[in-house]
Amino acid sequence: MTRVGVNGYGTIGKRVADAVAAQPDMVLRGVAKRSPNHEADSAVQRGYALYAADSDRLGEFEHAGLPLAGTLPDLLDSVDVIVDCCPAGVGARNRERYASHDVRAVFQGGEAANVADASFTARTSFETARDADTVRVVSCNTTGLARLLAPLDEAYGVEKARVTLVRRGGDPAQTDRGPINDIVPDPATVPSHHGPDVRTVLPEVDIDTAALKAPVTAMHTHSVNVSLGAAPTADEVRELLARESRLFLIPEVAGIDGAGKLKEYALDCGRPRGDLWENCLWAESISVSGTDLYLFQNVHQEADVVPENIDAIRAMTTDIPVDESVTRTNEALGVGLGGRLGEELTPNGPVTADD
Amino acid sequence: MTRVGVNGYGTIGKRVADAVAAQPDMVLRGVAKRSPNHEADSAVQRGYALYAADSDRLGEFEHAGLPLAGTLPDLLDSVDVIVDCCPAGVGARNRERYASHDVRAVFQGGEAANVADASFTARTSFETARDADTVRVVSCNTTGLARLLAPLDEAYGVEKARVTLVRRGGDPAQTDRGPINDIVPDPATVPSHHGPDVRTVLPEVDIDTAALKAPVTAMHTHSVNVSLGAAPTADEVRELLARESRLFLIPEVAGIDGAGKLKEYALDCGRPRGDLWENCLWAESISVSGTDLYLFQNVHQEADVVPENIDAIRAMTTDIPVDESVTRTNEALGVGLGGRLGEELTPNGPVTADD
Fold first, then answer.
1. Known catalytic membership, residue B86
2. Cα separation of B82 and B84, whole Å?
3. pLDDT of residue B4
């Protein structure tokens, strides 16, 4: 049993904590949090041992009636791996602290690549992370692009990928984010940093990215073009991608026209928090013109890196092969959407869904 | 065991179906749906018997790979009560059909009051619905207002209630609703229909309402003023309202500043679909100036009527007292938010929640 702690119990941290707790070969020793707010309350409701990340704020937890198991150093002394889910940049400042407690650390994609020995997705970098002391799980967008480009590169060769990322402005609970009525080039310089970040896990792939942000909270949307080294049919590409366990091809018959209905479907299927751990690709958007592939995919910024964090822990601490780790993670979480409709990947005609 | 069917498996219908299935004294015989879309797929995934609401569209279900148990008349022949969750106005057209199958019917608040023998909330109208053949559960906003005004009227007398309703433009999955960048008086005439609708369940209460709609999807927000027949302190009002099982007083220490964090908290607490069955009142907004009470409350338009539908079924078909029905419904669903923080209704001072 790998003993795991989570430092930072926000959007990513609480999901990673639940995912660790769901693995039969891991034990969640506790979570560390700065503020005694509603998220800390929900951690206690879930029965997680709660540690104060900031020892100056113990009184606030007491005032809020939230019982503490200790402070962050206590948690670090009791685990094999700490997953750092602090806001971007804070992880780098925590790095030495983790090392001084002789604890392996997983960082998130908001940190610079040099925060860790290796950058990671399970699809591209499992062996690279073997026995590493520190690993950085790449960001949600980079994870989504790597999962898509890796099988395309293996099957056809990727000559060049060109992607426009229409990013969500903030997460659903972030009342202080924007824009509220604009689509903002962000950064206005092209290419954006996302392309180089993909190359931390797929070094041979040539990719340029342009990024915007929009007044939505549910998901990121990618408009993807890939110039391939071959000219497959669209159906061949669909079949290739449908074999990837962390890609969900949205069947046209489902009547899912955007992130709202995607999240609705996830909630209706009983997914915790409506999480979409898979890339969500519109099956009918997959088109090939010569050697040029086009498609739309959505990435759930709160969720797609969660199974990757689990696989990163296994890569660092065990000798389990990648396929077995991914299968274990998928089964413990329930990765793999579709139901009956999931079998309808190439519907024969349009179906009205208007009730 | 009361045998229940649900006609219309959309936003309300799927939630009512789950709630019926969770009751130890009810059995869900099936759900009827017009389109074989992602919601129909999720019904099959949940193991619900699926009936085609429109017998002209059987081929579409077959094409989508969704197995049918029959059509709507088959469902009506197998239940004691049908809960109509069709779009507003469709319920009135279904009324005769239900009567011809000798089935009791529960309608939703989108229908006119005269669709049924009685309008209903459990807090105000349980006995009125006894043995009725048809009952209308009032709308989400009316339910939220009635739950608030009933205890205030009993404790202090309501001289006059004046409420501004800032309504959500559409539900999260409704990509075709607006506004997208405006706050629209809707209707522009004052008072809106909500005040008269409250009087279908609280006939003696004097209430005027003004309604707007805003570019949000998560919840409705009410800005409430009530001129009382007495002059309680704000703390006395808080204590009164905290005793109501379907009112959740949001403690200031929780750091919940809007609908986004409310939904986040509900999801973190494991609520299905992040549903908030309770009115959500900001505890610190409860203020009294002389005999004038002010407060803000949020109403989850997808969820607050769900426990009311369950109680309506019990009122129509059993002799169970109101308190027992409400307790059974609350326990089966898990109504009652708060955790440790819920005990902190009158925090002594501000707590920063900024991580």
1. no
2. 6
3. 98
Q: How many domains does chain B have?
A: 2
Distances (CA, A) of B194 to A143, B31, B190, B199, B270: 48, 30, 10, 9, 32
- Collapsing DSSP states into helix, strand and coil, what is residue B105? strand
Nearest residue on chain B to A273, alpha-carbon basis: B267
d(CA A247, CA A300): 12
Q: Which two tokens stand for residue B109?
A: 């608040």
What ipTM does this complex have?
Answer: 0.88
Q: Does A116 share its domain with A154?
A: no
Average pLDDT over residues B59-79: 95
Q: Which domain holds residue A157?
A: 140-304+336-343
| Residue keyed to tokens 């799980």 | A137
Q: 3-class secondary structure for B231-292? A: CCCHHHHHHHHHCCCCEEEECHHHCCCCHHHHHHHHHHCCCHHHCCCCEEEEHHHCEEECCE
Q: What is the pLDDT of residue B354?
A: 36
B204: left (phi over 0), alpha (psi -120 to 50) or beta: alpha
| A42: number of Cβ within 10 Å | 23
The minimal CB distance from B265 to the residues A38, A261, A263 is found for A38
User: Which residues of A are marked as active site?
Assistant: 140
- Is A9 in a helix, a strand, or coil? coil
Q: Which residue ranges of A make up the annotated binding site for NAD(+)?
A: 11-12, 110, 168, 301
Same domain, B101 and B175: no
Q: At what angle do helices B306-317 and B11-21 cross, to 10 degrees?
A: 60
* pLDDT under 70: residue ranges of chain A: 338-355
Same domain, yes or no: A129 and A154: no
Q: What is the pLDDT of residues B177-234, one digit of tens each?
A: 999 999 999 999 999 999 999 999 999 999 999 999 999 999 999 999 999 999 999 9
Instruction: Give the span between the Cα atoms of A228 and A292, in whole angstroms.
Output: 6
Estimate the share of chain A in helix, then strand, then coil, as percent rounded to the nearest 5: 35, 25, 40
**A260 → closest Cβ in B36, B53, B173:** B173
B94 is annotated as contributing to ligand binding:
no
